[in-house]
Write a structure and sequence with these properties.
Layout: H1 42-59, H2 71-79
Amino acid sequence: MCVYFDKNVTKQCTEDDAEEVMDKEKVNFCEWFKPAYGVFDSIGAAHAARSKNALEELFGDGADTETADDPRIAAADDLFK
């Protein structure tokens, strides 16, 4: 949501002196940040949320512990040891 943000640039920032933000999910501080008007896309955000929910319903959220006791999983894991 910054005027300097550009997903097609290497550090995703067009300001050369700005430090790279490695983890964009956590709180960070940038002294170059300037809010860009109208960049939040509520339709796109809603679509992304629906897509994420559909994937979690299809594949689970990764916290499935039932497969831990599955002998097929153990056999597959043994192949890569």
